[in-house]
Amino acid sequence: MSTPLLAAVGHGSTALWYLTRATGLVALVLLSATVVVGIVCSVGWVSERWPRFLSQALHRNLSLLSLGLIVVHVLTTVGDGYVPISVVDAVIPFRSPYRPIWVGLGACAFDLLLAVAITSALRRHLGARLWRAVHWLAYACWPVALFHALGSGSDARLGGAQLVYLVCVAAVVGALGWRIAAARAASPVMRTGAAVTGVVVVVLLATFAFLGPLRPGWSRRAGTSSALLAALSGAAASRGAGGTATGSPSTGQSPTTSTPGTAGLAAPFTSAFSGTYSVVGPDPTGHEQVVFSAHLEPSGSALSISLSGSALDDGVSLSSGTVTLGSLQGPVTSLDGSVVSASVSGSGRTESLSIQLVIDDHSNLVSGSVSAARSAGGKGSSP
Ligand code: HEM
């Protein structure tokens, strides 16, 4: 198939949701820059052209800007309404029904950042010691935000987003190394402790990324309830963005009923089917293939559906697909949520198929129903 059937799928179909993702990434970059410039301030680095007050002003402005962007990030998430996240979920951690742990970590990072901002505004009244103690939280805020971003974001498997994450980690780890090396007055125990903490955080982040968000099926493992995933799948379809194939939840829809007695073998007919599915990939280019192998009931005719496309967090953005039913074969003509349409032909016959998939992604089982209609000029067939 030369043109992609679906341009995009999943929850990237409204301006607000795009804004959530974009502001999240920019906020992370700004937060990383805030940490790096904060370290420049604390090391006390100056040059002829770069006096200390410039670092301090940059640090303050970057932190305010990142806080502002995070507020927009939260408001667009709540305003979009695609996932049921409330303003309360943004400040009280681990309440969100959508990826509770990972969105909860975002709330923790937001709270830490608010605490740092508020104590900075009240610095004169609080005294330097308390202010400094709270300001150390800024270091904790950064890895917490990073775990949140990887765990909640839709874009962790996109090369561009990965580059952003890598640059942020490299910049902060480099600055931390510089800070530790420059802190000659600190005790060796403190310096070693800081270095070990830095290494442990990076190893944990990398392990988490490779075992979690970078692998298919993260949506379910991220803790979103099946009911919500099913609702999201339906919403993605109704937004007209296309539909998800595997990795996406069972849609919760029942297959159209089909009884062996009414399911004649020559089109038009409707027949139930059941079988299994498997996912191959994604390969390094993010390409993934989902193959459904099933048998019609009661005829036992083989039904095979192969969908190929780009791996997304919640499924596959379809670029091509093939359906084989008995001796008939042809391309997928559309994918709308969990309904695959195809035009199959063989031995001079052409039939239109509408296949309702019900996916059980806990056990990799698929069931559903297939309805066959004679295409104009087609003679019908027996699968
Ligand atoms: C310091 C605070 C925060 C930072 C730096 C941050 C940053 C990010 C980043 C970088 C992403 C990934 C975007 C993507 O993959 O495209 C993300 C995703 C997300 N964040 Fe945050 N975030 C923060 C706080 C919050 C809070 C408090 C909430 C609660 C409403 C929240 C809700 C979300 C959601 C729902 C997503 C998933 C968006 C998607 O599907 O791509 N974030 N965040």
Structural summary, described in words:
It is a single chain. The protein folds into 2 domains: 15-215; 244-374, no CATH class. The protein is 46% helix and 22% strand. The protein is α+β, with helices and mostly antiparallel strands. The longest helix has 29 residues, at 15-43. It has helices at residues 15-43, 52-80, 87-91, 100-121, 123-126, 128-135, 137-152, 159-182, 188-211, 218-221, 226-238; strands spanning 269-280, 287-297, 302-312, 315-325, 328-336, 339-346, 349-360, 365-374. It has an 8-stranded antiparallel barrel. The chain has 11 helices and 8 strands. Helix 1 (15-43) packs antiparallel against helix 2 (52-80), helix 4 (100-121) runs antiparallel to helix 7 (137-152) and helix 7 (137-152) runs parallel beside helix 9. Mean pLDDT is 79; it is low at 1-13, 233-264 and 378-383. The protein binds protoporphyrin IX containing FE. Protoporphyrin IX containing FE binds next to helix 1, helix 2, helix 3, helix 4 and helix 7. The site of protoporphyrin IX containing FE has 29 residues, from helix 1, helix 2, helix 3, helix 4 and helix 7.
Question: How would you summarize this macromolecular structure in one to three sentences?
Answer:
The chain has eleven helices and eight strands. α1 runs parallel beside α8 and α2 crosses α4.
Task: Summarize the topology.
Layout: H1 15-43, H2 52-80, H3 87-91, H4 100-121, H5 123-126, H6 128-135, H7 137-152, H8 159-182, H9 188-211, H10 218-221, H11 226-238, E1 269-280, E2 287-297, E3 302-312, E4 315-325, E5 328-336, E6 339-346, E7 349-360, E8 365-374
Antiparallel strand pairs: 1-2, 1-8, 2-3, 3-4, 4-5, 5-6, 6-7, 7-8
Helix pairs in contact: 1-2, 1-7, 1-8, 2-4, 4-6, 4-7, 7-9, 8-9
The structure holds protoporphyrin IX containing FE.
Protoporphyrin IX containing FE (HEM) is lined by residues 20-21, 24-25, 27-28, 31, 70, 73-74, 77, 85, 89-90, 103, 106-107, 109-110, 113, 145, 148-149, 152-156, 161.
